[in-house]
């Protein structure tokens, strides 16, 4: 099949949200793009800008297909490819999907607790013809930026309030990250609690981890290999000390960042103790 025919079929499937068939067609389309020297943008002035826009659109469909099929690695690969086209802002108009896709990628990085790469990606917006100072007002980008700020500040309850409410996101794909982001936040809170407390009443811990019922907290306690006696959870400190050794400078930086988060978690924990 020709690239034109494949593109037509892919677009039809994508508009029907038939992501399985989209996924079947995408490798064939990539092969055709390679044959036509279009998969990777070059400085070749003979390439028609319209062809580059079509390729960019196909890669965007690939990214959205991958994330809807819950294939984060494929999604990341498509984002890496399409960003090369986003940097061609001198010859191509800005894509209407650009901020949405980058926002989804930033959310993925948050679920992976990769804050370093998160900030690197934000810095790259200057290459996309965007004003970094205006990112917080964008309907898509404002969401991961706010989440990241709250996570850094230790304001996990703000993130939870948004994720647990019937929040209307600017695109349906944002909902795909809710569970993973909550799991990431719970793990961050858990590791900081282990560093700050020897034990906590189980009800306090349930509130701190935003767990709604006894089954959820019991499953989480088992997953973390904590011990429970008389409704008090005891944290196994040795589990947190099995990481590989790092350089002293890295330890100092990590400790500094951790103290900031622990301070917020402890404060929030004390509030929960008072309530209980």
Automatic annotation (TrEMBL):
Name the UniProt key words of this record, in alphabetical order.
Answer: Proteasome
Q: Name one GO biological process term.
A: proteasome-mediated ubiquitin-dependent protein catabolic process
Q: Which GO terms describe its cellular component?
A: cytosol; nucleus; proteasome regulatory particle, lid subcomplex
Q: Does the keyword Lyase apply?
A: no
Q: Where is the PCI domain?
A: 73-251
Q: Transmembrane among the record's keywords?
A: no
PANTHER family per record: 26S PROTEASOME NON-ATPASE REGULATORY SUBUNIT 8
- Family the UniProt entry places it in: Belongs to the proteasome subunit S14 family.
Identification of the protein by name: Unnamed protein product
């Amino acid at each position: 099949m020709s690239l034109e025919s494949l593109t037509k079929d892919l677009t039809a499937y994508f508009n029907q949200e038939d992501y399985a068939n989209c996924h079947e067609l995408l490798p064939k389309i990539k092969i055709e793009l390679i044959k036509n020297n279009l998969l990777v943008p070059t400085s070749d002035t003979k390439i028609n800008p319209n062809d580059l826009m079509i390729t960019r659109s196909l890669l965007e469909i690939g990214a959205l297909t991958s994330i809807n099929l819950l294939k984060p690695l494929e999604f990341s690969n498509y984002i890496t490819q399409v960003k090369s086209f986003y940097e061609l802002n001198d010859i191509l108009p800005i894509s209407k999907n650009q901020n949405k896709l980058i926002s989804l990628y930033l959310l993925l990085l948050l679920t992976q607790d990769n804050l370093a790469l998160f900030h690197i990606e934000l810095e790259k917006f200057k290459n996309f013809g965007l004003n970094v100072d205006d990112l917080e007002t964008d309907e898509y980008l404002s969401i991961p930026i706010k989440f990241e700020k709250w996570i850094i500040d230790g304001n996990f309850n703000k993130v939870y309030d948004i994720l647990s409410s019937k929040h209307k996101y600017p695109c349906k794909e944002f909902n795909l990250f809710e569970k993973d982001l909550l799991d990431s936040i719970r793990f961050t809170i858990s590791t900081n609690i282990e560093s700050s407390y020897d034990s906590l009443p189980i009800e306090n811990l349930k509130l701190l981890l935003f767990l709604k019922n006894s089954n959820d907290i019991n499953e989480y306690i088992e997953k973390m290999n904590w011990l429970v006696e008389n409704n008090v959870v005891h944290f196994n400190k040795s589990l947190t000390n099995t990481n590989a050794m790092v350089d002293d400078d890295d330890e100092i930086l990590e400790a500094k960042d951790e103290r900031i988060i622990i301070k917020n978690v402890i404060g929030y924990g004390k509030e929960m103790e008072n309530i209980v």
